[in-house]
Amino acid sequence: MGFMRIFGFESFGGPEVTRFLDVADLTWQPGSVLIHPTAISLNPGDIKVRNGQRQSSFPVSFPMAMGREAAGIVVEAAPSTGFSPGDHVFGSAFSGTGAASDSFVLLDATSTAAIPSGVEATDAACLPAAAGTAYDALAELHDLETWPDEGARLLVIGAGGGVGTHALQLARHFDIEVIGIASARKKVLVERLGARFMDTAELGKTGSHVTVPPVDGILDLVGGEVLEGLAHLAPEGAIRSAADKQLAARLGGSGITRVRTQERFAELARLVAEGAKRPVIGRELPFSAAAEGYEEVESGHALGKVVLTVNS
């Protein structure tokens, strides 16, 4: 049996529990697609898993690799999946496994899709969690099936991060007017993606004359006082939060129901291939810099996505 390197953890806790570990090579399991990873996308949700905040909903088997999504080259897959060795794919990690490895990653076969021609692996790796969450939220708040939803206005709280930057582009594609709330350093990015920018700091400043108009829906990626202070701008029930679903529920909204199907992921990849949107990658680091990448994600100030690359 061979060994592979993961960036993971052997107990729940803060950043101090993560390190590089040598573990037995992963092998194909029914329902999975075994890949050699070329890109691994990092997400705030990975931090919650490591902290032990998702023990009731997310199976963890120590030692556990960080990460929940990756792109790479198929090593082994059941013929029924339609994938063969050598195919370039992306998707969500198989239940009970992580994605931060330089050798093998198991993807869930039902949440794996082919990478279209012209789409970079680094971009594809960002789609399952960030782009998927943004799309699912927009689909709940606006009827994308009857696009264009003329005259619709969306408020995105935390518009400069991984999910937010996807939401801005998707909204623009579906002709939805967007107000993006973010920190001042993300102003140029938010406006470049077609949204009206509002500074988070200005909203809470005494004597500030910044006013936010009523909207048809709120996508919240921050939670806390910012969401509470803006919730009244949306119609009853038109709040979706990826940051604090309990608060969103108390305000009449909810969390976001994720659709992690091959069909949904293929649609997200098609939008990238057609130029309708593209992941905003703020940092692209080698796998050896995984700790640095997660430090940036955990700071809450990452500009867009942070991605680790693996030499194929």
Automatic annotation (TrEMBL):
Entry superkingdom: Bacteria
Pfam family, one: ADH_zinc_N_2
Domain Enoyl reductase (ER) positions: 13-308
InterPro entries noted in UniProt: ADH-like_N, Chloroplast_QOR, ER, GroES-like_sf, NAD(P)-bd_dom_sf
SMART domains for the chain: PKS_ER
GO MF annotation: an example: oxidoreductase activity
Protein name, per record: Putative NADPH:quinone reductase
